[in-house]
Known about the structure:
- The complex is a heterotrimer.
- Chain B is mainly α.
- Chain B is 57% helix and 5% strand.
- Chain B has 2 domains: 1-31, no CATH class; 39-127, no CATH class.
- In chain B, strands 1-2 form a two-stranded antiparallel ribbon.
- Chains in contact: A-B, A-C.
Amino acid sequence: MRGEGRVRTCIGEADDCYVSSSRAQRGDLPDALWKGIAVGLTLLAMTQNALLKAIVEDKKMGVKRRDFFKIAGVTALSALTATKAVSAFAFGPSGHGGETVSKDNAVRWAMVIDTRKCGKGAQCKNCPSLRACHEAHNVPDIPNKKHEVKWIWQDSYDHAFPTQTHALIKDELKTRPVMLLCNHCDNPPCVRVCPTKATFKREQDGLVMMDQHRCIGCRYCMSGCPYGARSFNWVEPKPHIKKINRAYPVRTLGVVEKCTFCAERLAKNQGPICVEACPEKAIVFGNLNDPKSEVRKILSVSDSVRRKPHLGTSPEVYYIM
Amino acid sequence: MRDTAKVIIGILVFLVLVTTPFWYGKIAAESGKPPVLKVGTAEKECVMSKDFMRANHMDLLNEWRDHVVREADRVYVREDGRRFDKSLGNTCMKCHTDKKEFCDKCHSYSGVKEPFCWDCHNDPNAR
Amino acid sequence: MLEKALVGNKKYWMFVFFLLVIIGLGFLTYLCQLSQGLGITGMSRDVSWGLYIAQFTFLVGVAASAVMVVLPYYLHDYKAFGKLTVLGEFLAIASVIMCMLFIFVDMGQPFRAFNMILHPTPGSVMFWDMVSLGGYLLLNMLIGWTCLEAERKSVPPPKWIKPFIYLSIPWAVSIHTVTAFLYCGIGGRSFWFTAIMAPRFLSSAFSAGPALLIIFALIIRRISHFKPGYEPIQKLAQIVTYAICINVFFVLLEIFTVFYSAIPEHMHHFKYLFVGLHGHTGLVPWMWASTVLCLFAIVLLVNPKTRKKEHLLVIACVAVFIGTWIDKGMGLVVTGFIPNPFDTVTEYMPTYREVLIALGVYGIGALIITVLYKIVLAIRDREIAN
């Protein structure tokens, strides 16, 4: 996967085959109708937004002035998001998540986890990937299970894929460890429900991000997430972090957090730390929109599945069985 | 209306009490001297002018925060073309190494409670 | 008019004081939650909504039920409800305020609550819930206050208030529909993922709300000169009867769909509710209590002989209220999280501190109702004296 981080501009020819179905299904009239409704709804919000901001930041000069123009931009953006939200509301992906790769961007980060390799090595008892992630991101180790915070963790196959198990399943598969983390869905329900856009899908590369500065701690996203990938800070996390990594922030009481696909490392053209730390090379990360990427190569030749594809969330973490 | 005098006194006492924060602030500001801050840096110039930073650093930080977290825009270009990482810990605190002498001193002088920033962000130079 | 709430006998002040103590206790406990975090509640990573959101959901229903007195009076000119409409509207005010407080105490970062307005997100149902609840609160304050003011002056309510009253009728339906959408729009929680959620919410609201109103009317008859008549109470009882029957019918529809189709993901939640799952039976006694209470209430209500006896009617109303409170509060909210996405069970039981905070919010609601009803009764007492 190394090196792929730099491939940011090429849109491969093979992308065309992904564009096919979902676009064509959108009839012109309903789409326009939904857009109209969305714009109308947003108008209300925009006025409110602009007014409030204007009142709050009615100072001249400098940052303030620029802020004001930014507000215009942001409101326009929120109109756009609303349009998208409503059209997504009306026309989510059809079928069982078969046509998922986001088509508009050069980059769509995704992860492939080979469950056959996972947990086989000598070091795997105390999974180095898990440790590396939690140490790098100041994820607390809280003994009370109910208050647990986790970005990446292991569970058995029958818990990870509860609808794909059965009574006679072979023991090895039933108990096979599966690495679980945020799926960075293409159609993320957590983003859809968040009332403040504190969690949002980054347009340029599809990462589902979390703005802990804005989160009000309502936990609607936790209800929305069908993968149990989100953690809430029920208790003060700091006392439960063994050694604080000063290069990365900790979190405060009462906000939600989760895996970010190591956005801070991607910015430096590095892959996620779990990928780097895995001694078995069981995790591969790359750009799904680049047909030459390793993730695409692996997916084209292996038996891969995703968690709960029937929900139409289009998860971007793939598992090789 | 035999109590006119009492009423007037009552009103005066009320007014004095209600305006306490204003005149107290005035008196305190005149008697107290603004702290001398230890900039503690080899760099001669900040990312923006000193006056601007003095008045608006919190807005700049908020703007940087939104750019980095929400727009993945991490690079700030100063007027002279020099580039900086939009980061409190990795840029600001690299020069202003002494949080106590630089940040806290003035914050406590101007009655700003410890900003929420430090609830989560670490002072890279602490100990 | 507020000054009327400042004059009262010793019992009135004792009751107000009692409520203030409850509120004070709740507030102190809330301060503790503020500093230590929501970890002091029984909620967990798996069951991330609990008692607070359950109360919120239930009380939205009570708030919406004001429409059940407003609609017959204004749209069908059912005169007997004339004196009850303002009671319904004031009950709605107290309920909506309690709803908002329950959302507030459930927030991890309550001081950032304004982010909902600073960053409005029309794609989120919670945004619309805020809009509809806020609007409903304003509507009821405006209508209730204006009509009462007119009553005090012994003149008919001003004409301009009519459109607001008509607007409040669909608005009441909207608050509960939007609240149902909070849940049924989530595909990953199969227990909530049902199109019948909004109708279920409305039917339980229209049984619990008027049941509470009947109880209040009978209390008022005891303690004041204003005597709510036999006829309007019987009419309300009929509404409760229809609504609770429809509510139980809706639940049976769910049970049929879930168990006849036999999709495990959907069945697991209902199994957890009624017989327990993987050996966990935390809610089973509660659910059966709720079922028995509702069926018992139906027996009393459907039979005209028992319904028409007010001392039996009040028992039925209490049963309806508690039955729907369990079913819609804890039953509906908590069971959505059990089993969790990994098909394992983490149970939920509120802590005593969580209960104290919830009681504090109920105390505030009770205080608002007490004060508002006190004003109404003071005005009516004077009318009667004249």
